Amino acid sequence: MSVNIVLDNVSLKFRIYKNPNPNLKETFVNLVTRKRHLDDVMEFYALKNINAEFNPGDRVGIIGLNGAGKSTLLKTIAGIYPPHQGVIKITGSVTPMIELGAGFDMELSGRKNIYLNGAILGFSKEAMRQREKEIIDFSELNEFIDLPVKYFSSGMFSRLAFSIAVISDPEILIVDEILAAGDAHFVHKATDRMRHLFKNSQIVLFVSHSLEQVEALCNRVLIMNKGEVVAEGDAAEMIRFYKETIAQ
Fold it and tell me: What is the pLDDT of residues 193-225, one digit of tens each?
């Protein structure tokens, strides 16, 4: 089966409440009138009219300033945010590496969280049992793995979350800023593992503020600004354009 992602005129709106915690009087008035004042609510487009297609062999870097919509685009493709307008068509299985460790139970041990996160990723208990040693060895947390993760340092937490996330070779890989987890030694090892995943995945979408990583790992780049794709093309050419016109 050939994998494919098509975004057809995709838009996503977010709503901001200027007073998200009204006092008792304001709450009562809102209940009686059954409405909020229009000026208490602001809507904005986090994504606006996105049209794109990704095919096998695409290693796509998505770059832009903070707030440009990069991570929101990945979360929309991953199904975390449903678009308000347009259609996303995906052929193939998607493995999102976004906000690693978000599914951890802080009261459980590192070992139990391996199985918990494996279940979230769709793996059976037996499949995770076969991968348990590999995950622990890669994370280098052997002597700490039976401690509750609430006692882990941020580096230990990141290492375990990353080690769980990279246990399989996905068809479509979605990656958001995860190559800086842990110390220099682990970052080097994690980068090697990501290169393996990039090589073996059919489609990769990669958000990063590191233009060096994007240029090294990607063959195509989308530039986003204020929720829109403003340019796309060859990685080296787009990065040069971004430096000269946007990131000044």
Answer: 888 899 999 999 999 988 998 998 899 999 999
pTM exceeding 0.85: no
State the CATH number of the domain containing residue 154. 3.40.50.300
pLDDT tens, residue by residue, 123-160: 899 999 999 999 999 999 999 999 999 999 988 998 99
Range of the domain at 204: 4-245
Number of domains in the chain: 1
In the chain, % helix, strand, coil (3-state, to 5) comes to: 40, 30, 30
Displacement of CA 135 from its chain's centroid (Å): 21
- Asked if 49 and 9 touch (Cβ cutoff 8 Å), the reply is yes
89-98 pLDDT per residue, tens: 999 989 888 8
Do 97 and 174 form a contact (C-beta atoms < 8 A)?
A: yes
How deeply is 24 buried, as exposed, middle or buried, from its count of CB atoms within 10 A (0-12, 13-18, 19+)? exposed
